[in-house]
């Protein structure tokens, strides 16, 4: 295999000069929402009522906000609940329990979210950037480059939209609720750190200030932005950290995950272990299984050794059967190789699961749908 990684920027910022998304109550804490209304010449105490409609009642029709005075209702909604995104396509799989939505943002950027309903939980997989600047060659999103960071509210709106659909019984299985959120959609979450942390706080703030979710049911993934992992450990929010490792050795990981040329496997795994030590939260190591690339038995042994060097019981490996993109040389591992990989990890005491594959018939890999559109 020979891959020439694209050069990565020294800072992980979006292109400059872009117009910002409209300010939304999900971008702000409760004090900020109140002040925004006051600045607009509206009564600040109405902010809590709007927050209740958005986060607790999951209402999106102003006509249902009957506790707001009719003469001010439109102005209040326009000030704190501007439209952020429009659904372009909605695809279903797994008998309607997996729903993928392609969203058009205010500036025409396209992002995707996926709702996955299981027997014991419903998980929203959300995007944090339009595109991605990490340039991983096997990833559909990474091949398109970074368009821009998403705002806190644009991230939160993906979850609220899923929660609305569940509350209204629009997802197969009847009325329910969103219980888990994973930042594993388009983009590198820790490259959009401020907005992602803002979104995590909105998701976990008690209602009506936020959705009132448990931080333990929120997973933030990263390809390994070491300084940001360390910063996340000091936030005081016990989210699960998911490290997208994909290779246990620098030679291969430099090609699969170009950021590894700046933060080595050892540095990245050390930072993940530090996260565990500070938060007490077991880290999830994500490993996309690619046929003939990273699924050899000796790499399973090396992965176990790398993780065990830092201690036992601090990490869980989540093997991901690759959702191939059309025309790509990157394909899923042979099931027999996958089973041997699992066996070798477990033989060395590494807790391991294979992710349930969903949505392969609806362009399941992140970025596929946006790329087609």
UniProtKB/TrEMBL annotation:
<feature type="binding site">
    <location>
        <position position="221"/>
    </location>
    <ligand>
        <name>S-adenosyl-L-methionine</name>
    </ligand>
</feature>
<dbReference type="InterPro" id="IPR007197">
    <property type="entry name" value="rSAM"/>
</dbReference>
<keyword id="KW-0479">Metal-binding</keyword>
<feature type="region of interest" description="Disordered">
    <location>
        <begin position="1"/>
        <end position="24"/>
    </location>
</feature>
<feature type="binding site">
    <location>
        <position position="136"/>
    </location>
    <ligand>
        <name>[4Fe-4S] cluster</name>
    </ligand>
</feature>
<dbReference type="InterPro" id="IPR013785">
    <property type="entry name" value="Aldolase_TIM"/>
</dbReference>
<dbReference type="Pfam" id="PF04055">
    <property type="entry name" value="Radical_SAM"/>
</dbReference>
<feature type="binding site">
    <location>
        <position position="139"/>
    </location>
    <ligand>
        <name>[4Fe-4S] cluster</name>
    </ligand>
</feature>
<keyword id="KW-0698">rRNA processing</keyword>
<keyword id="KW-0489">Methyltransferase</keyword>
<keyword id="KW-0949">S-adenosyl-L-methionine</keyword>
<dbReference type="InterPro" id="IPR004383">
    <property type="entry name" value="rRNA_lsu_MTrfase_RlmN/Cfr"/>
</dbReference>
<feature type="active site" description="Proton acceptor">
    <location>
        <position position="112"/>
    </location>
</feature>
<feature type="binding site">
    <location>
        <begin position="187"/>
        <end position="188"/>
    </location>
    <ligand>
        <name>S-adenosyl-L-methionine</name>
    </ligand>
</feature>
<keyword id="KW-0808">Transferase</keyword>
<feature type="binding site">
    <location>
        <position position="132"/>
    </location>
    <ligand>
        <name>[4Fe-4S] cluster</name>
    </ligand>
</feature>
<keyword id="KW-0408">Iron</keyword>
<feature type="domain" description="Radical SAM core">
    <location>
        <begin position="118"/>
        <end position="361"/>
    </location>
</feature>
<keyword id="KW-0963">Cytoplasm</keyword>
<keyword id="KW-0411">Iron-sulfur</keyword>
<keyword id="KW-0819">tRNA processing</keyword>
<feature type="active site" description="S-methylcysteine intermediate">
    <location>
        <position position="366"/>
    </location>
</feature>
<feature type="binding site">
    <location>
        <begin position="244"/>
        <end position="246"/>
    </location>
    <ligand>
        <name>S-adenosyl-L-methionine</name>
    </ligand>
</feature>
<feature type="binding site">
    <location>
        <position position="323"/>
    </location>
    <ligand>
        <name>S-adenosyl-L-methionine</name>
    </ligand>
</feature>
<dbReference type="InterPro" id="IPR040072">
    <property type="entry name" value="Methyltransferase_A"/>
</dbReference>
<comment type="function">
    <text>Specifically methylates position 2 of adenine 2503 in 23S rRNA and position 2 of adenine 37 in tRNAs.</text>
</comment>
<keyword id="KW-1015">Disulfide bond</keyword>
<comment type="similarity">
    <text>Belongs to the radical SAM superfamily. RlmN family.</text>
</comment>
<dbReference type="InterPro" id="IPR058240">
    <property type="entry name" value="rSAM_sf"/>
</dbReference>
<dbReference type="InterPro" id="IPR006638">
    <property type="entry name" value="Elp3/MiaA/NifB-like_rSAM"/>
</dbReference>
<dbReference type="InterPro" id="IPR027492">
    <property type="entry name" value="RNA_MTrfase_RlmN"/>
</dbReference>
<protein>
    <recommendedName>
        <fullName>Probable dual-specificity RNA methyltransferase RlmN</fullName>
        <ecNumber>2.1.1.192</ecNumber>
    </recommendedName>
</protein>
<keyword id="KW-0004">4Fe-4S</keyword>
